[in-house]
Write a structure and sequence with these properties.
The chain is of the alpha/beta class. It contains three helices and four strands, in the order ββααβαβ. Helices cover about 25% and strands about 15% of the residues. The chain is globular and about 40 Å long.
């Protein structure tokens, strides 16, 4: 078992600083999981719009999204590797729903296996971001 906790970070790509070419610069991590295209945005569930991924209702909506359970299984297996990661970062558009919920769910799974974790939600407290149309 790792002595130092695995850092789990959620973030929103729309809140990140950009590089010289205008691309978002995600946090430095052993693995960065971009779920913007992989998992449907749960914002259509209007009753969770003002909540963030720390709320069990948001976690339930995210977990019910096609592909979410498989992704969570994969991240759990990755975190449990003998020479496992020190830092896993998960990003979605705004960092409020999908990324935040997945970090919380992953942390729960790892803690159940006595793997210490440290959780950081960089953008969950910020208002929901609407993408500007191009």
């Amino acid at each position: 078992m790792p002595l130092n906790p695995i850092m789990l970070t959620s973030f929103g790509y729309l809140h990140l600083p950009t590089d010289a070419d205008g691309h978002p610069v995600p946090p430095t991590a052993d693995r960065i999981e971009d779920v913007r295209e992989r998992l449907r945005d749960p914002a259509a569930a209007r009753d969770i719009l003002d909540l963030d991924g720390r709320d069990p209702r948001v976690q339930a909506v995210v977990l019910a999204t096609p592909g979410a359970t498989e992704l969570l299984d994969n991240l759990t297996a990755y975190a449990l590797l003998p020479a496992g990661p020190r830092h896993i970062a998960i990003g979605c558009a705004g960092g409020k729903h999908r990324a935040c919920a997945l970090v919380e769910l992953l942390a729960q799974r790892l803690l159940q296996r006595d793997v210490p974790v440290a959780v950081e939600h960089r953008h969950a407290h910020l208002p929901r971001v609407l993408k500007a149309s191009r």
